[in-house]
Amino acid sequence: MVNYWKAKVLPTIKKVFDTNGKKAAAAEASKSFDQSKEDISKEFEEKKGELQPKVVEIYEASAVEIKTLVKEPTKQGLKKKSTGVVSFIEELVKIEFPGSKPVSEAASKYGAGLVSDPVIFIFEKVTTLLPAEEPPAPAEPAAAVETEDKEITPEAAEEIKKEAAEKEAAATPAAEAPPPPPAADPAPAAEPAAEPAKA
């Protein structure tokens, strides 16, 4: 019975809990990917035109967290959202995105956090195909119209601030003034004595 445990069960348990072996295998996968980056980049440049609409479609269908990771990938984020990252990369494999197949295999086998460099490389390529973000619309268009009429100088900026403060003061009705303090009680309530410090 002891020999069976030593021969069959113990090696299986070691494989399950052996993270160093997993890290070494992930490092080897990353190294082999690094060697093929030039070929992947060339293939990417050739297929760029046909890949863009497909990549945009996959990107738009993704969760917000994955979109954020694609735009700004971090190793910590890849570890936390590993399953979402793997599914995103699997979608890229379906459209034959260059380099996505080995990255997908490595990420699903070892986790996206352990093969973060190849995943980040793929995400950088995906980002180049995405349309540029539109600048956010101005929050207060009326204020923007007023400032367009005046030349922006330090004096003009100060004047705009004063006008805005005056408008706020005028908009605040007198009814919102703080209520008067309550009348003082003739007999103040006795405060309980503080407990002595315990040593």
From TrEMBL:
Skewed-composition ranges (Low complexity): 186-199
Bias (Basic and acidic residues): 150-169
Stored InterPro entries: DREPP
Region: Disordered, residue numbers: 132-199
Gene Ontology terms: cellular component: plasma membrane
Bias-annotated ranges (Pro residues): 176-185
Signal peptide residue numbers: none
Pfam family name, one: DREPP
Domain of life of the native organism: Eukaryota
Protein name: Plasma membrane-associated cation-binding protein 1
Organism name: Zingiber officinale
Phylogenetic lineage: Eukaryota, Viridiplantae, Streptophyta, Embryophyta, Tracheophyta
